[in-house]
Amino acid sequence: MKTYVATRNAGKLRELKALFASELALASYRKYSAVAEDAESYTGNALLKARALVAALQASGVCAAALADDSGLEVDALHGRPGIHSARYGGTQIGWPQRRAALLAELRGIPPYRRTARFVCALALLRPDREPVVVTGEVGGYILESESGSNGFGYDALFFHPPSGRSFAALSEKEKNAVSHRRRAADALLPALHSL
Predict the structure, then answer these.
(1) Rounded to an integer, what distance in angstroms lies between the CA atom of residue 84 and that of residue 73?
(2) Could you state, in chain order, the average pLDDT of each consecutive group of 10 residues for the chain (196 residues)?
(3) Is 187 one of the catalytic residues?
(4) Which candidate in 38, 69, 70, 76 is catalytic?
(5) pTM of the model
(6) What would be the CATH architecture of the domain defined by 3-195?
(7) C-alpha closest to that of 173 among 27, 68, 19
């Protein structure tokens, strides 16, 4: 069954397509409109997005599955912020460069060993006439004191991944997809796909 992804983020769509290349035929749906992500968890927000996409598909007479991702960056020195508000950190009217700058400013003076953080991802898969499948994955690292790398998107240029010895933005797409929070969530989802 064709599966549409509940996102307007081209980078996220590209990653999900790569992660599920042998399992799902993923596509964007032009009539999908972003929903208010006002749940209290990544799982809740992923389900909100997936259900909104399913409703849009059904309204157009399309019988298909929906996959939604909600992810965020949790910084220990900030008591887990920005967390589920990562995409809106610093305000909804600013872009990612300003969000990264705001995060660096808030962490100014915090020594490297106290800049521990993790990326968290929840994936929700909704198929017609089936219960939703929701999984999570995370990966730990540190927040750098300045940006490093030009690949990726979001906070990737600030997130140092110790096993790789580089930031996520300094990794190739293939390298990042092998170790990321989305990879871990995708791995958790695969058994559910095989059992459907």
Answers:
(1) 8
(2) 86 89 88 86 95 92 92 97 94 93 97 97 90 95 97 95 97 95 94 74
(3) no
(4) 70
(5) 0.91
(6) Alpha-Beta Complex (3.90)
(7) 19
Closest C-alpha among 110, 103, 107 to residue 88: 103
Q: Who contacts 148 (Cβ-Cβ below 8 Å, separation ≥6)?
A: 157, 158, 160, 166, 167, 169, 170
| All residues at 6 or more sequence positions from 30 whose CB lies less than 8 Å from its CB, including other chains | none
In the chain, which residue ranges form alpha helices assigned H by DSSP?
A: 10-19, 42-59, 96-106, 173-179, 181-195
| CB-CB contact of 53 with 68 (8 Å) | yes
Nearest to 136 by CA among 188, 178, 73: 188
Residue pair 155/103 in contact (Cβ under 8 Å)? The answer is yes
Helix 181-195 / helix 10-19 crossing angle, nearest 10 deg: 50
CB 120 within 8 A of CB 181: yes
